[in-house]
Amino acid sequence: MEGFDSAGETDSIVSLVVSGDGNSSEKRKRETETDTETLMDVVVPAPRHPLWKTSLCSYFRGSGGLCSHGDSCRFAHGEEELRPRPDNTWDPASERAKKMAKMEVEEKEETDGGGGGIMMTEKFEEGESLVAGLSKCLVNLPMKWTSDHLRNFLKEKGVLFKSAKKKKGMVVGFVSFENVEQVATAVEELDGKSVGNNRTLKLSDVLPRSFERNNKVVSEGSLPCSDLVTKAEDSINDGADSDGNVASSSSALMGRSARAAVTPLAHMSYPDQLEHKKNSLAQTLKKLTRNARKACPRGISLPEWIQKSREIGGLPCELEGIIGSPSVYGYRNKCEFSVGLSLEGKRTVGFLLGNFREGVTAVEEPVDCPNVSQIACKYAAVFQKFLQDSSFPVWNRLNNTGFWRQLTVREGRSAHCNVENSEPIISEAMLIVQVCSIGFEDQKIKDEINFLENAFSIGSTEEAPHLPLTVLVIQDHTGISNAAPADAPLKYVFTRRGEGSELGINDDVEPRIHDHISGLKFSISPSAFFQVNTSAAEKLYSLAGDWADLGPKTLLFDICCGTGTIGLTLAHRVGMVVGIEMNASAVSDAQKNAEINGIKNCKFVCGKAEDVIGALMKQYLCLLLKPDDASSSTHNGSMEHSGDENVIQQNGSHQSMESRSELLLLQQFENVVAVVDPPRVGLHPTVIKVLRTQSDLKRLIYISCNPESLVANAIELCTPSPGETEKSNNKNNNRGWKNTTSASLARHRAKSMPDSEPFIPVKAVAVDLFPHTPHCETVMLLER
Ligand SMILES: C[S@@+](CC[C@H](N)C(=O)[O-])C[C@H]1O[C@@H](n2cnc3c(N)ncnc32)[C@H](O)[C@@H]1O
């Protein structure tokens, strides 16, 4: 379970180990052969108090790490020393206890159907209707069950019913009955009984949706499947959309507002939010120390950074605080609005209120969401107004039918600021409307899209000043979740031929908008990643550059480079940039961006980093100037670029060096730095292995939007390599990883890391790109 892997204290074995460097005072817990029972540094007193280290030391905490008892203190100096109490509980002041309490609340909410009922605003099938009193909602069913599973289960239990519906991926199902006797039997046979993997079934009444209670006519002409209203979107479901626009399901369910769903920290002051995020990051980073300590092979002394971590409260390195966002309100340059029915049954463009898994499908307008820009809100309102009269249905998440699915508004800032308030001017906007064309006639779609284009055009000019509208894209996506792949077909594209012209279908004009970072202009295509908070991203990139210690003799790898933002903004500080990115449109944007800005020392490679990085590093690093070669170098200290074109290489294939001049240029590099900025899941193991084993790579800047994956990757990068014996012992030990945490998995992988010098975490800092949400970016410097 997340957060509880680190200590594994209850089943761990304490042993005294003399470290390989002959330091006999270094005592630590060791992993056992079974791999799950792992340990940490512990000083064992004699005799040991029965409550040894089961409570946090208040002196230690209050004094910022000073306790006169030192290692002999019976209280725990920090979370990593803390042990469970004899009754298997944790010190209530500890993070573990708080996390456990939180999880208990969440589990209870899940069992209770979210504590407030299920918000289903959609019907399962045409003609389906539920009669109040003769319909029940079953909560806590196994997610993988379908309607058939539910029906068989009811039959097995001898429960008669009229109809039963259950959608895979949800924990709720809906049953209607012929009469009250059947209802009574169902309650007796099912409520509180065990189902699936020890889940406790709960029967809830189906409450009429508010719009039915008020006897309003519902435009979708449907009755709800249930009384409980729940609805959250797949993106919210998974905890985050592609850009970290996240709603925690529990807060969404409790808050019952779009504001609470997408900006759960909005009730706090901004300084409090920053403090909260910094503390939460510190807790996560401590996992790096704990896990690297556990994974440290036998017979090898603990790296100095682990030994010194006690001096900084268990952190792997100094956490230099958190940098706030220059813009706190309306900062998002990209907003993804779902289309669905509100709690009132109205066609709505906004945010899902909770978690689809738990049956939430209600969408509410983005009212009071402090991260959403005014322009995005206005376009959402224009689209919502249009939908009220559209003859095409909105997307039904229960049976995956409908046409209108999602609106994304992307904005681009001009190079100039508003003279009155110094705010950036939003000069371009791209609207991406996602639809599902299955089952709809082409001509009818065309007509409907023309109406929509007209509605947006008029909507944009009705505002004073006019809203920017650069391009309208209709994306056709037939998948279940709204998260469309980068290559989802663009069915129609309306662009402007020139400044001030009307939107129209101009096949020769590419759909794109432009933004500006650090004085450079960036061209952005519809599916390319671009940080959602431009002014905070500017801070992030320049900080990464400062930490990277760049110079004209630096070769910089920008791994997961998107549209090239990091590499291009740092290009003037290095000899050459090699960017790697898998999204072909983003690579093409990066290439264009280099051209637009007259930058000639960047190359962009299209491919998955795991497929291309090994060959690329070999190709470039074997030509590095080594200190021994310095005397034979012709390098005169200033970089002269050959004027080579920036090169895009497709599908992971790599070409040999383009020219002799490039080869000569490379020979002048004296150091290599990599900046990695991976997606939420972190780096692929192959990429980690290449970074780790390329001994010429001495400095690595890790930028992460997910501290858990940063920690997991850093465990592999920073743990000393195992000896041969340990590696071979580990070979047959690869079992039962399905339910393990990312950190445990990383520990396991670290054991098979080829012999190589580990990196050392030097410093870290948080940069808040997502005010009002729990998310923020982390930058960590690793060196060796
Ligand atoms: C967090 S974004 C960072 C983009 C860029 N550094 C920026 O700041 O704009 C992650 C990028 O990694 C790309 N990506 C995801 N998986 C990848 C992989 N396996 N190999 C290469 N790029 C990948 C995504 O397409 C996305 O552009």
In short:
The protein is α/β, with parallel strands linked by helices and 784 residues long. The protein contains 21 helices and 25 strands. The relative contact order is 0.09.
User: What Rg is obtained from the alpha carbons, in whole angstroms?
Assistant: 29 Å
Count of helical regions? 21
Strand order of the largest sheet: 7-24-25-23-22-18-19-20-21
The percentage helix is: 25-40%
Q: Overall 3D geometry?
A: globular
CATH class of one domain: Mainly Beta
Estimated structural class: alpha/beta
Largest sheet: 9 strands, mixed
- Beta fraction of the residues? 15-25%
Question: What is the tally of beta strands?
Answer: 25
What is the averaged pLDDT score? 79
- What name does the CATH topology of one domain carry? OB fold (Dihydrolipoamide Acetyltransferase, E2P)
Question: How does CATH name the architecture of one domain?
Answer: Beta Barrel
List low-confidence stretches: 1-45, 106-117, 210-255, 630-657
**How far is the N terminus from the C terminus?**
32 Å
- Say which molecules are bound, naming each kind only once: S-adenosylmethionine
What does this structure look like?
This protein has 784 residues and is an alpha/beta fold. Among the domains are: 135-229, Alpha-Beta Plaits (2-Layer Sandwich), CATH 3.30.70.330; 334-515, OB fold (Dihydrolipoamide Acetyltransferase, E2P). Helices cover 28% and strands 18% of the residues. The strands form 5 sheets. The protein has a 9-stranded mixed β-sheet, sandwiched between helices. An 8-stranded mixed β-sheet has the order 10-9-8-11-12-13-14-15. The structure holds S-adenosylmethionine. Residues 529-531, 560-563, 565-566, 580-583, 586, 608-610, 677-679, 684, 705 line the site of S-adenosylmethionine (SAM). S-adenosylmethionine is lined by residues 529-531, 560-563, 565-566, 580-583, 586, 608-610, 677-679, 684, 705.
